[in-house]
Amino acid sequence: MSDRSQWWGGDWGDDWEDASLDDDPIVEATSLLVVGLGLASMVGIVPIQPFWMVFVIGFAVVVPLVALLRKHQLDSANAEADRTTDAAERTADEDEGDTEFDDALARIRDRYARGELSEEQFERKLELLLETETPEDARERVRRARAERAAREAQTETESES
Question: What sections of the protein cross the membrane (predicted)?
Answer without folding.
Answer: 51-69
